[in-house]
Amino acid sequence: MSSGMIRTFTAAVLMTALLLSGSASVLGQAKKPEPPKKPDPLVIKLESAQKGKHMGEDVLLVTGTEPLSGQKRVFAVENERPQNPKDPPKYAPNPRIKENLDKVKPGEFLKVEPKAPSGRWGGATYGNTSSSGGYGRNNNAPAPVEWLDKAEGYLISEHETEPGTFVFDGAFLDDLAVDGQKIEVYSIELIKLGRVFKCLAPMINDGKKMVPDPAIMAIGDELMKKEKGKEKKASKAVIEATINPQGDYLFVTSLDAYQAPRTGILNKLVDADIDGNKGQAIEVDEGGKTLTLVLPGKLVGKKWTTDFGMLAFAKKAKPGTPIVFKTRDTETKSYLRALELAPKEAVKKGSKETAGVETKK
């Protein structure tokens, strides 16, 4: 991955003081001790599933790698307990889990759900483990082993392993109870490698009250229309999103349909009209076609202010500079949402070649 990260324009709006104060009041109340929370599901690239030693017993050990972080993971499948408690334990992996594991080959993806920490048969344990390889947080640490609750094959959606991408699982208006009040919010549900993210659109002031960001809602509604028009067996759409945590909540501050990186030649910086305001755009040659791409920004008072990072990039770049970019398209304009220099080998003037280009939001 190139060290220069794509500059992205995200209209990130923090949650209102009302919503945050409601969260703070709830968090400030005394709570009864809760049982350990079950870890989130995750997806690993299976390396092996074979008999090994753990905690003095023969167990089925499952090893794999998280696709994004490259972190090694080790899981153990609990043996069925002998009917007679006096009988010594024997190697008898949970048949439900083993049956699913047998369907997945090394190199394929596996969705796993670890057990919640709960004494002998839950959570992570350390040491006394031998299999095809021991993995830890560093070379000197013992291998953490988590007990498996569920495991099944996972079909990766195209582009799902790329940074900033998610499987779109729905968007809708909802009511959120905060500090005894109901607030209308816009919920967005996303999935990334088996993990579900329940998010909200940012709240903005419409002059009268705080409402979900209409720009995010419009994109979410459009994505929902496309999903409803699909056949039942069709895979869900992969989208691009920026998720920002704020207090107890996750906020989607940018949301777009997936777009493969595009390459072109930046020709020049020009003025652009944005709803009666003066803004800036760049002219780009993409495969022999000239595109006018508006630089993103926002209204400050009544004045349009162009995103500083993209404007600085456009001013510094010389005519003929190869670039990699992504756009957000409306009926009348195309707005830039990602922009960076292209690797020299990735672009030939006048072509749409994108092979070898890696981008990061």
From TrEMBL:
Biased composition (Low complexity): 126-137
Region (Disordered): 77-96, 112-137
Signal peptide start and end residues: 1-26
Domain of life: Bacteria
Keyword line: Signal
Basic and acidic residues bias spans: 78-89
Keyword Flavoprotein tagged: no
Protein name per the record: DUF5666 domain-containing protein
